[in-house]
């Protein structure tokens, strides 16, 4: 960033925000940008509180106010009009930017000239924000220095990073990790990147704590640090290779949004470095876990959808298989603490799964039960669907992973019968009511099974998928028999859930319904039965909705019983005792709880 020579105080009424940003950068003793950016100049117009109108009204008002100005061939006159109209609209800066970025433009060249006038000479955050929003669509390389400078101002970094994304990924990423991160953990890395010292960047990168809070934006960290460039000059640096593997795996995780790995442009190159030189790393249990997780990502996770060269992904998986079959990884281990035993148990149960041969293209889908092991105390289970060797769900739905096998496989939901039926394949990590779910209709058509009637996809309607019915049924039978992925508590949950489906009267006699049977997210060695109580009188709350209470019954696997005996004992207890007396109340209607004598759970 160039530095403005002027050191005298600036007049916010006449000084452009671009000049102000350069001025602030120039007067900082160490030249470092604050984590939340420089404050806007004193005397800047306060941001309006915003109008209470719906989105269509916002769009109509902003279009009527700005479209004529943006079509004006004179950028100076147009920019003056935008300043005036932005003030008159009285909308929040975020609202103005969001709608300006999607405006229908009569003359893109004229709008681009106006956007440049606003970003170079604009004096208010509202008008400059509109200029930046237009450059998200219209920006060119000559706009990069202005966007980088304006992105250092509080409130403008998100829009500036969006405009920089197609032009300068590293600059965009630096704005993101500087402006969005809620802790100081990335401050040393941001400072090192701003300094341009590659060795300092490498040091800051390899010393990042391996914890979720520090690696919240893995793609942006890799882009800002130019991880690919660092590996190109240091391909056998063990610390750098290890952090590259951790960042790649975190990018591949499904956290209720589009997996970041799909937008990381150098992903295939960085995978090549990490897998190709992984034999240079010390064979620790943590690395074994990371390498196996990487194999899952490449085999059936979103990373499989990257733009690989022919046979490149297969070669990487082959390299991981040979490495993990080597003596350094298969030799016996000394007695381990509990957390390490859990990791070793996950490796033992799932170590061969990502290396299974793929079925012939087009013959049938393949279902893979993936246990995502992100920490010794955490296991997330999802059903992955492979078609022609590639994962189907990440390409269609980005808000959440595939539903668990207890729902998709154990219930027979995927079986194709004489009548078409709809199946929910995935649900948003929040809730379906919030961000949706993915559905498909499954039907049998002669000698084929057809998947069509898609609902909830992120993009265009997918085509109908047709599979050979005999191969389809055989694959379902295989996966229904395969419980090798299970650990004892999950086996208990699977058997208990099946028993409750076969004998629904066990809970109905207590006016209960089964919501879910599985394992605790943070205590995976505890089986959880989640139940809902509805009073027989159908009592309703003040808002007219039925009153209910929600209970969780926790069954740790520390009683020494095998899963089948633990599940049988649990079913017997439900048959003879009201679960409301031994399960834990966790939510529902306070009024109903009080009327029945239950103590409301503390927050």
Question: What is the tally of helical segments?
Answer: 27
Radius of gyration: 28 Å
| Estimated helix fraction | 40-55%
**Largest beta-sheet characterization:** 4 strands, antiparallel
Oligomer state of the chains in this structure: single chain
Coarse structural class = alpha+beta
The 3D shape can be described as globular
N-C termini distance: 49 Å
Strand order of the largest sheet: 4-5-6-7
Summarize model confidence as the mean pLDDT: 88
Would you identify the regions where 5 or more consecutive residues have pLDDT less than 50? Answer: 3-10
The proportion of strand residues reads: 5-15%
Number of beta-strand segments = 11
Architecture overview:
The protein has 27 helices and eleven strands. The two termini are 49 Å apart. α5 (108-121) packs across α6 (125-138). A four-stranded antiparallel sheet has the order 4-5-6-7. A four-stranded antiparallel sheet has the order 8-9-10-11. The protein is of the alpha+beta class and 603 residues long. The radius of gyration is 28 Å and the shape is globular. A hairpin with a 2-residue loop joins β2 and β3.
Can you give me a brief rundown of this structure?
The protein has 603 residues and is α+β, with helices and mostly antiparallel strands. Helices cover 45% and strands 13% of the residues.
What are the salient characteristics of this protein?
45% helix; 4-stranded antiparallel sheet; 603 residues; 27 helices; alpha+beta
List the helices and strands and how they pair.
Blueprint lengths: L16 H11 L27 H16 L4 H15 L3 H8 L7 H14 L3 H14 L5 H7 L6 H8 L4 H11 L7 H9 L2 H9 L11 H7 L2 H7 L4 H15 L14 H10 L8 H16 L11 H13 L2 H4 L7 H13 L15 E10 L2 E10 L2 E2 L1 H4 L8 H4 L12 E7 L4 H4 L1 E9 L2 E8 L9 E4 H13 L6 H15 L2 H4 L3 E8 L6 E8 L15 E8 L6 H14 L7 E5 L1 H6 L8
Helix pairs in contact: 2-3, 2-4, 3-5, 4-6, 5-6, 6-8, 7-8, 8-9, 9-12, 10-11, 12-14, 13-15, 14-15, 14-16, 16-17, 16-19, 24-26
